[in-house]
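[09:14] KT: can someone run the structure on this one? pasting the chain below
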Amino acid sequence: MGGVLVGNDQIGNKFYEIPADPSRGKRLPKRWIIPATQHSYSQADMSAEWDAWLRNRRSVPPTESEIMDNLAIAKMKKINADKAALRDGKNPNASIRHTDMSSFPVYGEEYELTPGDEDKKRD
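[09:31] RB: done, structure tokens below
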């Protein structure tokens, strides 16, 4: 491919980069991914840290320990949210459904449904 292998993630995806070269007019590095399974790849499987690196939102590729620390924090937040839901008497695994919502807003009598209709009624 011509790039430098920068790292791998836990799934086996490989991340490559061609460094920026301002003398040739390339201000940003070119970065890409070679998925471990090219036929069934989903971006949802990629960690947020690697996604940020690919999109040039961070200059340094993530380390394995950084990714593991962030996963541990996310799991801790999920556990704490489940505990709070149970404490409030809610089922933490229940999905929230909004059945009382209509697809369009309902306005009071003071608004015209079609602008100008009220003027026609007065004439």
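[09:33] KT: thanks! The mean pLDDT is 85.
[09:34] RB: yep, looked fine to me
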